[in-house]
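cron nightly-structures :: item 1 of 1
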Amino acid sequence: MADDLTHNSSPRLGLLWRGDRSADPYSTPGAVRLEPLMSALRERNAVVEPVVYEDDAREEIRAQLLHLDGVLVWVNPIQDGANRALLDELLREVSGKGVWVSADPAVILKLGTKEVLFQTRDIGWGSDTELYRDPADFRTRFPKSLARDGVRVLKQARGNGGNGVWSVALVEPTTTSEVPSPDAPVIVRHALDRANAVPEIIGLGEFFERCDSYFEWSGCLVDQAFQSRLADGLVRCYFVHDQVVGFCHQWPKGLLDPSAAAIQPPDQEAVFQGPETPTYQSLRHSAEHDWVPSMKTVLALDTLSLPAIWDADFLYGPRTLDGENTYVLCEINVSAVWPFPEYAIAPLAKAAVAKATAAQTRKS
């Protein structure tokens, strides 16, 4: 790998993931996952450098990043008991000094938190969505939302893997004029509890207390309509900037009750498929021509400020009168998009080298 350090005229790209800096970086799981991308970047004459991140090594990592032209980042919002607060602070600093960062923390705050579900609820991929900025607002308005539908889905703004995602259902139906009290029993399921689908029945007030900590880290809670076709799975749509580069049908089980989970295909495995897959062409067309352009306008983002690799998860909405699928945005992932389909590697490498080369030119 020494050859990576010799071609000073080539753009220098770092690939950053969380891990053990004392280990050989090329033998870590992150490097193994990213080896195909490393090869594609080198084929485009980029110098590739692994950046293994630890919170306690920020000074060393800062020096490493400042010698790069760009860095692609794979670190989850919450991972192994740590969050991204210190990393994001460091990335904001090096971005301000001319290093291209994907995804930039400023872009993550616009695009990569659950708040985007509220901000873009009216562009065609949205559903009935509420946003709560603090615990008092949550306690005041969420009971009205719950009374209206009987079941809602709550999501902390920054999380991954189902962390902080709950379904909440009233045990006893009510009317919109009868707001449930803190003592009202509710059925709650946490999407993180995949291995234990047994729900809890607790008081609404107790559930409020569980959610208080989410405001401290993620800043807000988002409240969405429950989608009745959850058992049909979700479709993950992968993007390089605003270009669809692949799909993956997945089968999340965290919020399913046992009867709904029983109708899913047994041991169904997620399968990557290319951007030309016929089944998803209506989704691709809507995403590329309608939703993402509208999203960029709402969030004040241009094409090249979008992450070099990101994905959007879509649940199945109600079928049309003609029996066609509709789609509802579930979440957008930008912090650690892996694994990603092989179809994304070539366009991702092209985009990353272009951005790093532009950053190199500006710094020289």
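cron nightly-structures :: done
The domain at 2-103+345-363 is CATH 3.40.50.2300 (Rossmann fold).
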